[in-house]
Write a structure and sequence with these properties.
The chain is mainly β. The chain is built from no helices and two strands. The mean pLDDT is about 80.
Length: about 70
């Protein structure tokens, strides 16, 4: 109860698009109790504004298999 959970974020169509790698920390102080399940959903509308790491860009992704 009251623990922080890091929810990872990535691009919806290709997991290796590095400009979209991020995480959000979620905490509910009084949940989950013994008979509860906590569900955390994190949604964004774009990637990082100034990504600092190279790699696969959104425009280069094939978006065929969910990976690249």
């Amino acid at each position: 109860m009251g623990r922080e959970i890091d929810v990872s974020i990535n691009f919806r169509d290709a997991a290796f698009v590095r400009s979209h790698f991020d995480a959000m920390t979620v905490r509910v102080d009084d949940a989950p109790k013994a008979d509860e399940i906590m569900v955390a959903l994190v949604v964004t509308d774009c990637g990082r504004p100034h990504p600092r790491i190279g790699g696969l860009m959104k425009e280069e992704a094939k978006m065929e298999d969910g990976l690249r």
